[in-house]
Amino acid sequence: MKIDTFTANRLYLTERETITPRQTTDNKGPIKLKGSNDKSESEMEKGGVYLPGLFTIIATFLLLLGSAYLVYELQDEFEQLHAERMASTWGVILIVVTTALLAVKGSFFLYNLYLYIKYKPVKSVSDEELPTLTVIVPAYNEGKLVYDTLISLTNSNYPESKLQILSIDDGSKDDTWNWMQRAKAELGDRLSIYQQPENKGKRHALYRGFNLGSGEVFVTVDSDSIVKNNTLRNLVSPLVTNENCGAVAGNVRVLNNKNSIIAKMLNVSFVLSFEFVRSAESSVGSVLCTPGALAAYRRPAVFACLPEWINQTFMGQPSDIGEDRAMTNMIMKQGYHILFQRNAYVLTNVPERYKGLYKMFIRWGRSNVRENLMMSKFVFKNFREESKVGARLLFINQFLSIALTYPFLLLMVFLIVSYPVLFFSSTLFSILIMSSFPVFFYAKRYSIKEAFYAYSYSLLYTFGLFWITPYAIATASKRGWLTRG
Q1: To the nearest whole number, what is the mean pLDDT of the chain?
Q2: Residue of 480, 281, 288, 484 lying closest to 366 (CA atoms)
Q3: pLDDT at 18 over 60
Q4: Backbone angles phi, psi at 227, to 5 degrees
Q5: pLDDT tens across 136-188, in order?
Q6: Which of 40, 196, 431, 484 is most exposed by smallest CB count within 10 Å?
Q7: Is the Cβ–Cβ distance between 223 and 145 less than 8 Å?
């Protein structure tokens, strides 16, 4: 995914906001990350305010508040519709089923909230306790971004004698290999670089790294990502303090969040999906996906499933997507706990335009369908000695979301055709209510100013991306990365 971005020397974000890599000057010390000026930012900002974003938030509020007023004005019509539904058998069934599903979803939210409150990240262990570490950075058509990634890794607060960094060029067609060679020239023996003879896919690049690596722990980092100074040591610490932990998910934030409205929306969305959802999942030792942008794996757990992972197929075709979710599933199936480290930050590039966004979501959606089917084969078995209730509840929630996709799509079409004004006004009002939690969560964790993008993102997802899941289900067997340059 090749995207214009802030390079590391432009990162001025604080620890609570985002991550600033250390800057240095030579091979022994910090190496300066060189980048270009971001003119688009200055052109679109005035007085420190991102004007397109401000207009988007204002328009969003006007739309949502207008829908609230409309719902109030249409109370008689809503009551009439309810009476009509109650007068028919199918209407009663629909109301009962909908109420039951809302109760289930509400209960699951409260369960997640309880798990989130329980969650605490593991503090970093001492240098003496840290394991030997192999960091693997697969790259394809990333250009200078891979250089920035590698420099940020070498600036990590991790004992140099315990850190091995490998980068594999997966047959890039641009100047990625040249940037990797430049990093190698500057970093010397601290970095090893390799080149695939042809583009085989990210999974095969990682596979080569796993076989080349000598560390007790493997860490995978995407080649368009920047890690914070203490990220690596924080990430691997649960593997030291908990012998039952087999993998750890990092905390992913958006690097290019000042380049577009979509990137700003995703930055807020990522905070909820990582710092709330994965924190809750971690409390039951069952994080469902260790992200490709930043994840750590115990060496024996990787090699126990490596042949199955590299040869994985779906409907007779080799799997070339969802390598992170697949690895997570296979390690969980061995009985290991999968945890999340909120204090292990990584900044990664995300799509800045709608086309790139929906392609990324299609890939994630297809992977979600595939790996939920795989998870269903072991989650109700005795796959671990400790409690399995949490993992099973998480799976059931995922399964319901997929299983109900088409029924809800048909219901939506019916309501749009039959009651368009009531449908759109009530849907917008629901977004105003339901999205207030992500707004509050982000505001409490970071800043109120950016938190309001949660409302805009919900609008985009509801009306602009609603088709992703049904399409991903229907095309789950299709191959292809979609967003690789």
Answers
A1: 90
A2: 480
A3: no
A4: -100, 155
A5: 999 999 999 999 999 999 999 999 999 999 999 999 999 999 999 999 999 99
A6: 40
A7: yes
Write the DSSP symbol of residue 339.
E
How far apart, in whole angstroms, are the C-alpha atoms of residue 390 and residue 153?
34
Q: What is the mean pLDDT of residues 276-286?
A: 98
The answer to whether the Cα torsion of 321, 481, 206, 150 is positive or negative is negative
Which has more pLDDT, 433 or 5?
Answer: 433
- Tell me what the mean pLDDT of segment 325-346 comes to: 98
Q: Indicate the pTM of the whole model.
A: 0.88
- Mapped onto helix, strand or coil, the DSSP state of residue 166 is strand
CA 47 to chain centre: 32
**Helix, strand, or coil (residue 239):** helix
Contact assessment for residue 137 and residue 210, using Cβ atoms and an 8 Å cutoff: no
CA dihedral 322, 327, 330, 331 (to 10 degrees): -150
Query: Which residue in the block uniquely carries the two structure tokens 């794996």?
Result: 297
Residue 183: phi, psi to the nearest 5? -60, -40
For residue 177, CA distances in Å to 138, 189, 202 come to: 11, 17, 15
- Confidence band (pLDDT; 50, 70, 90) for 48? low
- Biggest CA pair distance of the chain: 78
- How many whole angstroms separate alpha carbon 252 and alpha carbon 247? 16
Residues sharing a CB contact under 8 Å with residue 196, sequence separation 6 or more, in sequence order:
168, 169, 170, 171, 204, 205, 208
